[in-house]
Structure formats: structure tokens, C-alpha cells
Specification:
This protein has 18 helices and 25 strands. With about 600 residues, the protein is an alpha/beta fold. It folds into three domains: about 240 residues, 4-Layer Sandwich (Glutamine Phosphoribosylpyrophosphate, subunit 1, domain 1), CATH 3.60.20; about 180 residues, Rossmann fold; about 140 residues, Rossmann fold, CATH 3.40.50.10490. The chain has an eight-stranded antiparallel beta sheet, covered by helices on one side. Strands 5-6-7-8-12-13-14 form a seven-stranded antiparallel beta sheet. It binds 6-O-phosphono-alpha-D-glucopyranose (G6P). The site of 6-O-phosphono-alpha-D-glucopyranose has 15 residues, from helix 9.
């Protein structure tokens, strides 16, 4: 999704801005741009191609300066076109970039038109640029405070003025923005990753903050208009993590990193104790009588899997809701529920809003399972478990999902223990299985050549159906999501028992049906569902394991997973589905890491 970088320095900052944009590319974007203060004027360059192309343009134009802002745009208002790309200018005096959505842009546009402003783009952002110019008092910091009061919606902005050459002003409400502290130079960005290699001294701005960025100082005013000091945190540079290494795509790299990611996520867990979720965890876990999971996308599917675990193992009633639905629904709040948000980025707008909605309804027992230790989600929840997947660049989530599952299984065991449902023997046995997961996943990854052979057949199809039952129904959903996201094949998943209530009508020889078929208590039921598919000529692609007694025959293709893994089996079964999606997309020649229209971190509604 959109990314922001800004800088005020005593050296040419073009390389820092461009490098920052490159580091934000993984979030997904469709155009990009940079603006600089050059000899008393505003200069800019914009492109609907990649940041590498923008870099060439900037070099050819010798665009250099000490003060500037840059942006990657993911279109919401107005098509992905150069004239809609940020930075937006107003009357040659104000340059501005924006993440988020301004909801009252139509009203403001009318007012500004009446005041004589002409609009070059269809964006909501240009409205803010003109508003800042319209209200400009000669002091940009003061002006941005005035302007943001008139904005309804979500935003992070960075803005500078032709008339104040050594100043960039930032503001946030609903979208993340951070300040990077340098030596006689300061930076702004939507994500600390953008500044990796430039500075690791980071200030996380809070809701409603407006920041004045100058070379020697930063000055922050909070939502109440009071000057505030915010803590400077040292963050780890992620430089190495975003190198591609020997892999062809980040998604492939991230699939193969899963044994390491799971091992890191479980590192230091010698026994089950509530403390791993935070100091206050025991008290909270004792009090709660149910769990409410809120998440989006792939994270929602890990939540669905956790429901099966939490109810079966911990005996705790669990509801799972899509965050964008929950936030607007009249629900019945339960102050004794544990609200669990699951998020790779910790910045997904709908999940954050759902969390705040739950809190506003009196639900204060909050926990997040998150991959970004410094994210808003972690800051706003009482408890947290940080998955250590490392930076995930591929838009289609892989290692973030499997590490979420590992963390959610730990949560299950912990709640089971607190509720008196986990014997020492069971705890030891589960922990042993968890420690073996990295080796078990490595063995599954070795199936890649067989999956490549299947992918060739899938690449020629336009539809696919995924079936699973019980714990593996969410895994079927995740497999279908992976395939549609990156190969653009229409894929849907069903709990296999529902097949006869609709999707069976779609089954012909043209329909590949992927079946997640571990040898669990549902296997015989699942086999009957598979017969229903074969009887209609559907071609089955089955991921079996252990003693499932499913063998390859006409119209039935089987890949056997090395071992059956009991309750943890979803963590293994998702891996071949990730590989199937990856190789199918590769065979179709799509942009695997940056699928069309999608973004990595969805910071707008
Ligand atoms: C986007 C990403 C998905 C992700 C979802 C939720 O749609 O493309 O991969 O699952 O957002 O993101 P989160 O960071 O909250 O897990």
C-alpha cells in the first residue's frame, strides 16, 4: 500500500528518498514520485513504472536537494496515472504526499474550487495540498495543524513549502508515520524499514500528532495541541532480511524460510507459561471466559484454524470475525472475552479499527499475535506474542501465516493450562511435536518437484476448487486464496461436507479439485466427498499423509506428505498449497511478489 519518505538534511537526499521507496516497494504500489526543494522552487518527478524507473528519471533530470518527500501510491481515488501520482503541488508553493483516505474530499474540493483552486488530479490528496496552501500563514507547522482539523478520514501526510526550505511537516491520524533521527538531519517515513541503513533511531508518532522536522530538531504537537516528547527507540536494521539471495522471488524465499521462521518463533519456549504473552497474561487468562479473534485476509484464516484448537484443546469458546465486518456491526460485547487480533503487519486499518471498536465496547482484555514488534497493534494491546517470521516481502503471505499458527497453538496450550486442561504429559508431548516442526516442514518442502509437475496442469485452468474438513477447512481456504492472489485463477474453498449443497454443480472434467486429506478422524467422510467429485468427472489433486489409504488412480493424483502430524497438521499441509500457488503463477508468468491490484499492508479501509 502507499508509502512515504521525507527528509531534511545538509546533503543531497535524493538517494535516501529513492532507497526508502525501494524498501517500501514490497507493500504494493502502482505509481511513485519524488519532490525536492531546488533553488527556491519545487521540482518533482513521477512515474507509473517501478521505482527503478523513477530513479533513472531523477538521475537524468539531475534532481538534487536538501529537503524533500517521496511516495509510492496504491490507487484509491483516481486511476494509477502520472497526474494522480504523489507528490501533489499547490500553486507552486506546497508539495504534499499522503497515505490514507480523506472522506470529506468532495466538500473540501468544492470549497477550494470556489476559492479559485484548480485541480489536476482525481485524488483526495490534492485537496489536502490546496487546503494547506489556502490556509498557509507563512508557518507550515502551524498551517498543517489548522488544515488537519478540517480533514475527516485517515491520513499520514508529509508536506513542505517553497517558502521554508529547511522544513518538512508530518501529521498522522489513522495511518502510521514515524520519524527517523539522524545527525544534523531528520527523516519521516510510513515504516521504519524505509530508513534501514539511514538511521535506526526511530520515534513512533501517535494518533493526532503533528511533527515539525528541521535539521537540528524535531518538535511534536499531540492531538490536544500540546507539545510532547516521544520516546526514541533503537530498531534493528532489517537490511539483510530483504535481500533476495539465491531465490527467484521473495515468495519462494519466504516459503523456504518457514523452518527457520517457526524455529525462531518458538525459540526460548522451554515450557508453557502465560508470561510468554506478557506480564499481565496470567491474570487476564484466568478471568476470560471466551475468545474473540479479529483479523483480515490470511491472518483471518489462521484465526479460523485456532478456533478448532481453542475449543477442542483448551475448551474455550471462540468466535472468529473478519475485522471489517465486526467494526461496523452491532454485536453483543462480552467484557470477559479475550480479544485476539492477528496481523502480520500490525498496521491493517480494519483490524486496528476492530480492536478499537472492541475496546470502546468495554472489552479490555486484548492480545495480538503480530509480526511487527513496534506496530500500532502491539502498542495498543495489553498482551502480545511477536512471531519472528522476519520481514515478509511477498504480498501473498506465507511464513507469517505458519508462524501465526505456531503462536496460536502456544496460546491454545497456555489457555488449556490456565483452565486446568493440560496435563504435564500432554504439555511435554505437544512441545516435543512443536520443536520437531522445522524438520517436518523441511521434509514437506522436499516435495517441490512433484508439486511443480501438478502446477503445469493447473496453469492451463481458469477455475479450481479446494476442499478440506475440520482443522483443514481453513487450510483449504488459505490454499485457494494463495492461488487466486498470485496466479489469477478463480479458486474457492469449501468444507467438503458442503460440496453437495452447491459447488458440485460446477464440477466437470475441467475443474481441478484440490483436497487436503490428512489421515485424521474425518478421512472416511472426506473420501466419500471425493467419490462425489470423481462421479462427476472432476479431477482430484490430493495431499494425503500417513495411513490415509488414498492412492493414485485415474483422475486421482496423490502427493503423500512425509508424516501425519495430528493437531499441528495444518502447519504442514499449508506448505504444499503455497508451493502449488507459487509454481502455477510462475508457469503463467505473473508478477508473483507484486500481484496486480493487491497490497502487502492495507492501511486504508
Ligand atoms: C493484505 C495482504 C495479506 C494479509 C492481509 C492482512 O491483504 O496482502 O497477505 O493477510 O492484508 O494483513 P495483516 O498484516 O493484518 O496480517
Amino acid at each position: 500500500m502507499c508509502g512515504i519518505v521525507g527528509a531534511v538534511a545538509q546533503r543531497n537526499i535524493t538517494p535516501i528518498l529513492v532507497e526508502g521507496l525501494k524498501r517500501l516497494e514490497y507493500r504494493g504500489y502502482d505509481s511513485c514520485g519524488v519532490a525536492l526543494h531546488v533553488d527556491g522552487k519545487l521540482e518533482r518527478s513521477r512515474s507509473t513504472a517501478r521505482v527503478a524507473e523513477l530513479e533513472k528519471q531523477v538521475a537524468e533530470a539531475h534532481l538534487e536537494g536538501f529537503t524533500g518527500i517521496a511516495h509510492t501510491r496504491w490507487a484509491t481515488h483516481g486511476a494509477p496515472a502520472s497526474h494522480n501520482a504523489h507528490p501533489h503541488f499547490s500553486r507552486g508553493r506546497i508539495a504534499l504526499v499522503h497515505n490514507g483516505i480523506i472522506e470529506n474530499h468532495d466538500e473540501l474540493r468544492e470549497e477550494l474550487r470556489a476559492a479559485g483552486y484548480e485541480f489536476e488530479s482525481q485524488t483526495d490528496t490534492e485537496v489536502i495540498a490546496h487546503l494547506v496552501d489556502h490556509l498557509y500563514t507563512g508557518d507550515l507547522f502551524e498551517t498543517v495543524q489548522l488544515a488537519t482539523k478540517q480533514l475527516v478520514g485517515a491520513f499520514a501526510i508529509a508536506v513542505f513549502s517553497r517558502d521554508e526550505p529547511h522544513r518538512v511537516v508530518g501529521a498522522r491520524r489513522g495511518s502510521p508515520l514515524i520519524v527517523g533521527i539522524g545527525n544534523g538531519e531528520n527523516f519521516l517515513a510510513s515504516d521504519a524499514l524505509a530508513l534501514a541503513g539511514t538511521t535506526n533511531q526511530i520515534v513512533y508518532l501517535e494518533e493526532g500528532d503533528v511533527v515539525d522536522l528541521q535539521m537540528q530538531r524535531i518538535w511534536i504537537i499531540d492531538a490536544n495541541g500540546k507539545q510532547v516528547e516521544r520516546e526514541v527507540k533503537t530498531v534493528q536494521a532489517h537490511t539483510a532480511a530483504v535481500e533476495l539471495g539465491p531465490y527467484r522471488h521473495y515468495m519462494q524465499k519466504e516459503i523456504f524460510e518457514q523452518p527457520r521462521a517457526i524455529a525462531d518463533t518458538l525459540e526460548g519456549i522451554e515450557s508453557i507459561t502465560p508470561d510468554i504473552f506478557g506480564d499481565k497474561a496470567y491474570g487476564i487468562f484466568k478471568k476470560i471466559d471466551s475468545v474473540l479473534i479479529l483479523a483480515c485476509g490470511t491472518s483471518y484464516y489462521s484465526g479460523m484454524t485456532a478456533k478448532y484448537w481453542l475449543e477442542a484443546v483448551a475448551g474455550v469458546r471462540t468466535d472468529v470475525e473478519i475485522a471489517s465486518e465486526y467494526r461496523y456491526r452491532d454485536s453483543v460485547p462480552n467484557p470477559n472475552a479475550l480479544v485476539v487480533t492477528i496481523s502480520q503487519s500490525g498496521e491493517t486499518a480494519d483490524t486496528l479499527a476492530a480492536l478499537r471498536h472492541a475496546q470502546s465496547q468495554g472489552m479490555q482484555h486484548t492480545l495480538t499475535i503480530c509480526n511487527a514488534a513496534t506496530s500500532a497493534m502491539v502498542r495498543e494491546c495489553a498482551l502480545a506474542y511477536i512471531t519472528r517470521a522476519g520481514v515478509e516481502v511477498g504480498v501473498a503471505s506465507t511464513k507469517a501465516f505458519s508462524t501465526q499458527l505456531a503462536a496460536l497453538f502456544l496460546l491454545t496450550l497456555t489457555l488449556a493450562q490456565v483452565k486446568g486442561r493440560l496435563s504435564d504429559e500432554k504439555e511435554a508431548a505437544f512441545l516435543k511435536e512443536m520443536r520437531h516442526l522445522p524438520a517436518a516442514i523441511t521434509a514437506v518442502l522436499a516435495l517441490e518437484p512433484q508439486i511443480i509437475a501438478w502446477a503445469e496442469a493447473f496453469a492451463r485452468k481458469e477455475n479450481a476448487l479446494f476442499l478440506g474438513r475440520g482443522l483443514h477447512y481453513p487450510i483449504a481456504l488459505e490454499g485457494a486464496l494463495k492461488l487466486k492472489e498470485i496466479s489469477y485463477i478463480h479458486a474457492e474453498a469449501y468444507p467438503a461436507g458442503e460440496l453437495k449443497h452447491g459447488p458440485l454443480a460446477l464440477v466437470t472434467e475441467e475443474m481441478p479439485v484440490v483436497t487436503v486429506a490428512p489421515a485424521d478422524s474425518m478421512i472416511d467422510k472426506l473420501k466419500s466427498n471425493m467419490q462425489e467429485v470423481r462421479a462427476r468427472g472432476g479431477e482430484l489433486y490430493v495431499f494425503a499423509d500417513g495411513d490415509s489409504r488414498i492412492t493414485t488412480s485415474e483422475g486421482v493424483h496423490v502427493i503423500r506428505m512425509p508424516e501425519h502430524y495430528g493437531l499441528l497438521s495444518p502447519i504442514l499441509h499449508v506448505v504444499p498449497l503455497q508451493l502449488l500457488a507459487y509454481h502455477t503463477a510462475l508457469a503463467r508468468g505473473t508478477d508473483v511478489d507484486k500481484p496486480r491490484n493487491l497490497a502487502k499492508s492495507v492501511t486504508v479501509e
